[in-house]
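Form 7-S
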Amino acid sequence: MKINSEIVDTPPRHAATVLMLRDAAPGLQVFMLKRHNDSAVLGGAYVFPGGKLDAEDSDLGRLLDRAPSALHANLGEPELSHAAAAGLFVAALREAFEESGVLFASGADGTKLAQAIAMHQQGSPFGALLTQLSLTLSTQGVLPWSRWITPRMPSVSRQRFDTRFFVAAVPEHQTARHDNIEATESIWLTPHDALQQYWDGQIALAPPQIMSLVHLAQHSRVSGVLDEARQRTPPLIEPEPFNEDGARVLTYPGDPRHSVRERALPGPTRLYYRQDRFEPAGGLAALLNAGSAAAG
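Output:
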């Protein structure tokens, strides 16, 4: 990854991403996609399915299983409109479908799922295919997890995003796979294995993904993640970067150099850009020890 040092004064764009989870023999696993090497944002890095909020997403609240007011309350952002809150849920589920083929919708049996995928490949808009197939988006198990806002000096991009991270268990009998367009590879990994592979140079990760994996690794099962998400307001993370000895340092809430004194996340409160990657002062152990799985 190339480090950016330019100041970006444009407002961050709304975005949404989904940490799609499953319980497997190795433990809790999360689905990750490798972005196309030519992608404008995080090319070649492993990410969770997600993307920018589209204009039409906020118009599809009628296709959700819950009222926009309930979704607004879940996000814990009083300044956000109800329509915008519903739009973020739509964006998260749309991106999950477009990038992995997983459809969070009631009535999405094998036949309708295959029809939806075929219609999408033929260019049908998300709202149109849902309407034609009489499908309603399911949000009951799609829970806000965290909110990340890119600083004015982005480190790995020249764009700014206000991204809501959601967590959800992949619906039974659905198989997640990359689309071979925006993503060229995909894999299910435990958070521990993903961090280990990152450290070994097998996969590339951006800081929000690193810290999200450390957070997920506090749990051994999907139920524990979902229970935590239900019991608290999503933490707001606004990284505050600075340069030290010519190298980029990212600080998070709770770090002595960060303006917010209270911790928002488990794990290290700062990452250093060294050897072409971001790492904590304590090395891999600082990531894995912070992410020791709990019983939940």
